[in-house]
Amino acid sequence: MEILDLYDENHNLTGKTITRGEKVENNYIMLSTIIIENNNKFLIQKSSSEKGSKYGLTGGHVLHKEIPLEAIIRETKEEIGIHLIKDKIKFLGYEKHPNGKAFFAIYYTNQTISPKDIKLKEDEVASISWLKKDEVEELINKEQFKKSHAHILSQSKKNISFQLQ
Question: Which pTM does this prediction carry?
Answer without folding.
Answer: 0.91
